[in-house]
Amino acid sequence: MDRWLLRLGIAAPVLYFGAVIVGSLFYPGYSHVTQYASELGSASAARPEIFNYGIISAGVCAVLAGLGFALVLRALSKGWIFSSLAGLSISLWGVSMIMGGMFPMPDERHGGFGLGMAIQVAPLLVFLALTGRAQMTGLKTFLLLVLIASGALFAIMMGVGGLVHRADVGLWQRAYALSSIPWIAVAALCLDQAMGRRRAASA
Asked: Tell me: the pLDDT tens digits for 73-106?
C-alpha cells in the first residue's frame, strides 16, 4: 500500500501540467508568457473546469502521495521525524491545489492560505530523511539542486531583483513551477525503486 500511495506522486505533476496545457488550448488568446496559470480556472476562461478539476485531481494525488512518502522514507531511513515532515509538506501542497481548484481566483481562498509554500522545504526534508543512505547519493544531489533552483526562483517571484513584470510574469511562474513540482515525480520513482530493491533483498 505504501508504494502505491507513493506512486501517486508521479501522477500529481503530470495532472498539474496537463491541466495547464489542456486548459490553455480552450482559452482563446491565452498567453503563457503574460498570464498566471490560475487565470485558466477563472471566470474569464471559456472552460475553467478543465484547469480547476485538473489541479484538484493533482492535489488529491499529492495528499495521498505525501502519506506514501512518509511511510517509504521511514522504512528506508528508520527515522520518523524528517520522514513525516517531508510527507506532510507534500500533502499540504496538495491541499493548496485542491483549494485552488475549488475556489477559483479571485476568491481569497484560491491561494490555500499559503499552505502550498510547504513545497519549498519538501526537497530539503526528503534529503534529511535520506541522510546516511549512501546508495541514494544521486537522488540527494538532485534534491539539493532542486532546493537551490526553486528557492532562487521563488525569491524572484516574490520581487527580489525586480525581474518580474506583467509582460513576463507567466514565464517566470512557469519556470518556478518547473523547478518546484516535477521533482516530486522523480523522487517518488527513485524511492519506489529503492523500496522495491530493499524488499527483494529481504525476501
From this structure: 998 887 789 999 999 999 999 999 999 999 999 9
| Global pTM exceeds 0.85 | yes
The torsion of the CA quartet 185, 189, 195, 197, rounded to 10 degrees, works out to: -170
CA torsion sign for 77, 120, 189, 64 is: positive
Q: Identify whether 48 is preceded by a cis peptide bond (ω within 30 of 0).
A: no
Residue 163, C-alpha cell as written in the block: 525581474
Residue 55 near residue 100 (C-beta atoms within 8 A): yes
Q: What is the CB-side half-sphere exposure of residue 164 using CA atoms within 13 A?
A: 20
Which residue, among 64, 54, 61, 65, has the nearest Cα to 102 in the 3D structure? 54
Grid cell, residue 156, equals 524572484
